Amino acid sequence: MSNRSLRIFLVFSAIVLSSIIVMQGYWLRSAWRLSDSDFERRVSASLRVVNSQINDFYKLENNSTNPVRRVASNYYVVDIPNSIDPVILEEYIKRAFKRNDIKADFEYGIYDCSVNHIHYGGYVCYSDKCNDQTVHYKFPSVDDNSYYFGVYFPSVSLASNTMNTWLLSSGAILLLILIFCCAVVIVLRQKRLSEIQKDFVNNITHEFKTPVSTIGLSAEALQNPAIYSSPDRMKQYTDIIRQESERLQQHTERILQAGLMSERDKLEVKPLAVNETIRHLIRNIGPMLAQKGAVINLHLSEAEPVLLTDEFHFSNVIYNLVDNALKYCDENPVIEITTIADAHHITISVQDNGLGIKKEEQKNIFKRFYRVPTGNVHNVRGFGLGLYYVKTILKRLKGDIKVLSGPGAGSNFSITFNI
């Protein structure tokens, strides 16, 4: 799938998912209101019947046209002409609720206006979780000068079958949306990995094809008997073969480095003189520095810091940082290598005057196969393995690396080891 098609698909999917979420929210809200309205209707109807039955039982006159009031979402009060027996009230309420299929737990109390006090009636339980320690509801006082009884539903929720169905369907839709989003993230990651691997294959093909072709042409030229009469030309072709062979060897070593980082591979840890190891490395790469016109300034600590580490991998880490400093520079490279040691840490920094790295790119430079865009894929040679190797092997060596850089300001890679 092309990038344009993928973007269109993601935008369309986002619109569809947003519409589903909005519609589901609207339907859920509507279902909530419908369920609440239905519950209120059934409770009010039941309590009006209770009010009528009580008036008939006590032969009282009911002067209220609307005796039932909903004080809160789960609290109702019903006006009555006089005080009543709570046992009789409970029986009437239970019968009325049963006729209207109301199976919610409730508490009730009777307000006596003569003493301005609500007498607690009782707790009626329909669930399996009731016990004698059920906390009694503190019925709120209603500003009224007449008798009434109050009914409170402590566990009223959207527990109707219709509401449960809506909640279940909403949960299922949200789960599907979450799964879809996870799938999109995985697809994007796989697409990114595929692009990186494709770039890696292209780079490695280019990097190996050029020296192999050059070696082949030089070897073909050396097979010509006439070449033996010209020692200078023979030396030129042999030098080309040697240089391209060294180039192939460097490429091979970089790829092999990435394969030497398995957790199962044993590190040869031993005391290592850090400053002397860096000096030795710089001497070994002297010809490469001279070819690049590079200058390396060493600012090494006066005392020789000793680190328990693997010499081979430690040298490769420093080499990779220096090699990056040489490659990513438009002018004559100037590299500053500094070591600082105290009682607890050893810090090694490699500062260059190169192109620098944008802030948004710095989080990616340690990923496998990742290469900072330079405008020309083959302008800077490499496979995107150097800094990945550095980060991974430092983790095994109990070290840490940080980068401080900016476009046109060069880069400073700082490595810290705990002693």
Notable traits:
single chain, 419 residues, alpha+beta, 3 domains, elongated, 9 helices, Helix Hairpins, Heat Shock Protein 90, five-stranded mixed beta sheet, five-stranded antiparallel beta sheet
Can you give a write-up of this model?
This protein has 419 residues and is of the alpha+beta class. The chain has three domains: 157 residues; 98 residues, Helix Hairpins (Orthogonal Bundle), CATH 1.10.287; 150 residues, Heat Shock Protein 90 (2-Layer Sandwich), CATH 3.30.565. It has nine helices and twelve strands. The protein has a five-stranded antiparallel beta sheet with strand order 1-2-5-3-4. A hairpin with a 3-residue loop joins strand 9 and strand 10. Helix 1 runs antiparallel to helix 3. It is elongated.
